[in-house]
Each structure stands twice: as C-alpha cells, then as structure tokens.
Amino acid sequence: MTKIFTHEDSLDLSCIIRPGETVMWGQANAEPVPLTNALMLSRRRIGHLRAFLGITDSDTCLPEHADCVEFVSYCGSGHNRALTKAGVLNILPCHYSEFPTLIRQGLLSVDVLMLQLAPPDELGRFSLGLAHEYLLPALETARVVIAEVNQACPWTFGERYLIQDELDVILHTDRPPLQSRTVEPGPVERAIAQRVAERIENGATLQLGIGAIPEAVLQALHDHRELGVHSGTIGDGVAELMRRGVITNSRKSLDKGVTVAGVLMGSELIHRFAHRNPLIRMRSTEYTHSPQVLAAQDRLVAINSAIEVDLTGQINAESAGGQYIGALGGAVDFLRGARQSRGGLPIIALPSTAGPRSRIVSRLSGPVSTPRSDAGLIITEYGVADLRGLSLSQRARCMIEIAHPDFREQLKQDAASL
Asked: For the chain, which terminal residue's Cβ has fewer other Cβ atoms within 10 angstroms, N or C?
C-alpha cells in the first residue's frame, strides 16, 4: 500500500532506505528537492549510502554530506562543481547511451528511485514531467520508488506513465520546479552561432547540447523554416522557436510533427510550454540516444561544445585546469548518429580561446572525450574546419586556420612535430 505524506518534515527516509543502498533521482529541473533535502537530513540515521547525481541545479548536496554519502555522477556540471572541488565526487565515465544497459545489468545499481511527478490526469496517470531519460530503466530495477507529486510540475506526454500502485511513497507538494540558469551569449558566441546557422538547411533536425553556444544557435535560426528537434535536452530556445513556427518537425523522418527530448532544462517558459502539449514527447535514453534512431533521422545536425580540440580532431569535453567540469555525456552518441544520418552534420562549436589560453591546442590537457575518428565540423568564431575525409596533416592546417591569430604561429611549429 502506498504511504502518503503531505509535509516533508514528517518524511523520515531512514525508515525506508537501507544502509549501503544506491539512490537515484531526476537531474536538473527534475530533481525532487523536498525528497533530496530529506535524504541529506536523514543520511546519518541511514548510515553509508550512495547517491547518483546528474546535472544539479540545486545546492542540496554539499561537500559536508560526504560524511555518509558517496556521490557519483557522470558530469561535473552545475553545483556538482562544488563537490568536485572538494574532492568528493566520483565520476562515472561512460557514454550516455550506456546508462540503460548499466542499470539493467546491475553494473549501476539503483535500489531507491526518487521522482518528481505531475499530478494524475483524468485517467489516473502520473506524468514523469520534466525527465524520462535514464529514469525509465531505473523504474524497472528499484526496490523502492518514492515520488514527490508536485502540483506545479508540468504534465508532459511520454512513453511511460505511472499509477499510484507503482509508488511506494508519495509526498504531495506545490512548489515551482527548479530552473536552469541561462548564460546570455556574448559577441563571440553569436559569431559562432551565425557560422553554425549558415550550415543548417531548412527542414533539418537538430540535437542541441547545453550552454551558451547552443542557445545562441537557436537565436540565430529565427529565419529558418520547418526545423525539427530530436535531442537529449531542450529548453527555452526550443520553446520560443516552436511558438514562432520555426520548429514544426514537419519534415522529420521519424516522429513527424513532434519534438522529442529526454529532459527539459530551462525556465518557467519551457515548463509552461510543455504542459499538456502533445507537440512535445518525452522519451527514454534508449530512444533519444539510439544509434539506429539517430541514423534513420535524415539531416540530423548534432550541435555540441567542448573544452578544447587538438590539431588532429581529438576532443576534450571533460576537464579543465585539472578539474572535472564537463562530461563525456551524449556528445559521441549524437556525433556518430549525425555522421550516419543522410545529410547529417556532426558539429563541435567552441570559442577559440578561454581567457589567455587557446582552445585549439597541439595536445589536449585532459582526456580524449571524443576520438578524432568521430570528429566532424569544428567551428570557432574564426571559421569552420570540416575534418571529414582529411588526413592528419590536412586536419592540422584546417584547425590552425580557425584558431585565434595570436596562437597560429606556435601551432604551426607544434604541428611540424606531430
């Protein structure tokens, strides 16, 4: 029988969660904050536990909570950076598309799943609201499912709904969901976005990473027509282009007429727009990142960013200055999918510099997140290097041309020894 609570102060998770168990919850805007707060408050009564984090838009999990909680994540984004800086975040380096298999096989065990759900519709179906992605396989394996049913959570259409009998514990709330902070694009990001937009055909289907450049690209597409979206995440920029009639999904090979996403990350704008909107369909990671699905989507344009790219096309999207601040994530999944797509474009877009450093480098300072065999178009404010079909020496010449002019001579010297 489902236990129902109406106030988080009355929810003692030490009576539900066992020592040594792994707890997972929705990431970013989908975090069930009252439940994660209760977890951190209960941690000492529970004993040692493991928490799997995605991108964090809250400061619920603090370094001092590592006295009882082992924090594990695939990324160092958002408030995870505080955990990284304190040395208490363990990184799980894997492609995003691997999560369902890892969860089902128990290699990434999920004992307790905490969800933020929208209230049930007239058929009694609770919507997963702001995220599907890797939560669906976790639903299959979790011993306990604890749900925050939030009156303010958008009810979204998806591939899976829940009924009350599937929930072990319900906490009723009425609070604004978390919002993701937007970074206003500067002149460099807008210049890059314009170069990207010039290569996107009307009728193309977009996948968009996270950050200022993907948002700037969306702003640069206002004059395009009949675009589609199939992406791991969508936010305010997609909602705005759907409102304007730029994104119609009318020419997609799959899911015609529907924007497909795994998680909503943005402000109240995307939350309101997605509420009971049949033109947006939430899907699991198994679908959004499927190699077969991506390859079958004609004119798929994958737009992601990076920390640095070397002269041969190797990409570091994870570490900078010795700190883990990014993620392996789904970039490789989408770049490979776009390469297999008929008329597709695999794009990495990044500024040519970060402060006094060049982001086009002779040797990476961090891990190889994307091998050079998967590199496609590298775009900076100085130009476009299409590395497909090029030899290493040809790649080096193209990469030097899109580097900041102040670093080109040194890069030429370094290229001679590659």
From this structure: N
The Cβ of residue 65 has, within 10 Å, a number of other Cβ atoms equal to: 18
**Distance (Å, whole) CA 334 – CA 77:** 19
Residues 184-218: b if buried by 16+ CB within 10 A, e if exposed: ebeebbbbbbebbbeebeebbbbbbbbbbbbbbbb
Strand order in the sheet with 315-316: 315-316, 308-310, 360-361
Q: Where does 222-299 show beta strands of DSSP type E?
A: 228-234, 259-264, 280-282
Give the distance from CA 38 to its chain's centroid: 25
Fold match between domain 3-173 and domain 187-415 = yes
In whole angstroms, how far apart are CA 398 and each of 7, 139, 386, 415? Answer: 60, 47, 8, 11
Whole-model pTM? Answer: 0.95
Statement: 3-173 belongs to CATH 3.40.1080.10? yes
Long-range pairs, 238-242, Cβ under 8 A, ≥24 = 238/208, 238/270, 239/266, 239/269, 239/270, 239/273, 239/274, 240/269, 242/273, 242/279
For the chain, give the longest Cα–Cα distance.
70
> What is the pLDDT at residue 11?
85
What does the radius of gyration of the chain's CA atoms come to, in whole angstroms?
22
What stretches in the chain show pLDDT beneath 50?
none
The CATH topology of domain 187-415 is Glutaconate Coenzyme A-transferase (3.40.1080)
Other beta carbons less than 10 A from residue 329's beta carbon: 24
Residue pair 102/138 in contact by the 8 Å Cβ criterion: no
Residue 406 burial class via C-beta count within 10 angstroms: exposed 0-12, middle 13-18, buried 19 and up: exposed
Instruction: Tell me if 346 sits within 8 A of 376, measured CB to CB.
Output: yes
Q: Which two tokens stand for residue 358?
A: 């060049």
Task: Round to whole Å and give the CA distance between 160 and 212.
Answer: 31
The whole-number pLDDT of residue 322 equals 87
CA–centroid distance for 350 within its chain? 17
Tell me which DSSP letter residue 180 carries.
P
User: Nearest 10 degrees: CA dihedral of 306, 310, 314, 320?
Assistant: -40
Q: Give the closest residue to 222 by CA, choosing from 256, 247, 257.
A: 247
Task: Supply φ then ψ for residue 417, to 5 degrees.
Answer: -100, 5
Domain boundaries, the chain: 3-173, 187-415
End-to-end CA distance of the chain: 65
